[in-house]
Specification:
Blueprint lengths: L6 H9 L7 H14 L11 H6 L14 H22 L4 H20 L13 H4 L3 H15 L7 H4 L3 H12 L7 H15 L6 H24 L21 H12 L3
Helix pairs in contact: 5-7, 5-9
Amino acid sequence: MTGTLTDADVQRMARSGMPPLSAEEGVALFDAALASGEPATVPARLDLAALRRQGEVVPLLRGLIRTSGRRTAAAATDGDAAAAFAQRLTGLSAAEGREVVLDAVRGQVAAVLGHGGATEIDEDRAFLDLGFDSLTAVELRNRLSALTGIRLPATLLFDYPTPAELVDHLQARIAPEPSFGPEALLGELERLEKGFGELVITEEVHEQIAGRLEVLRAKWQALRDTAPAAGRDGSPADEDFDFESASDEEVFDLLDNELGLN
């Protein structure tokens, strides 16, 4: 049973708090179990320090391990790590944020599998092909939960079977919403204007689009009517509405309600 264990397997078992037994230890414990007369026994080595470091102890072992104060400290440490990781994503573009999440996931995958570095992990290769089994899948889930501060399911690696899919899922859950100010809105309007020139639409769709645009025009007029009389520098506002005078909140409300953008 133990003859095929690799160094990575042994290291993983040690991190789990249950280091492997030698053949001599296993046989001795087997004999002790038979002699005990107990209907069910669990011969195992327990590394209590490693188990405490995991923060949350599985229910089966809670009678053996005291973690009240340590558990609170571990939870606080995990919370700080999750906050720091979220901060790293703040202000990044979607592409930049994905690279940060990808590096983190690949690093955790490499640590669980015992690889020398994250560069050895192919993001498009299935976790099963990378060498994951049920135990290592749970270990990676636990590591990512601590890193992100998100409670992730035990089936995480089966729901998202490649690192790339897992990264996209995690980024969608933890990355801050990108800012969307006036310049971004002007870019969207330019893209929309260009799209109109390429459309071939039916009369029914034409009426739907015209109706939405009319509502949007009314909303925009309402923004103009409530805009400050002077610009940010105190100079009189132009007769035409100055886009810069609209607050981000007003733009967000307009886009969220009418264009579905945020």
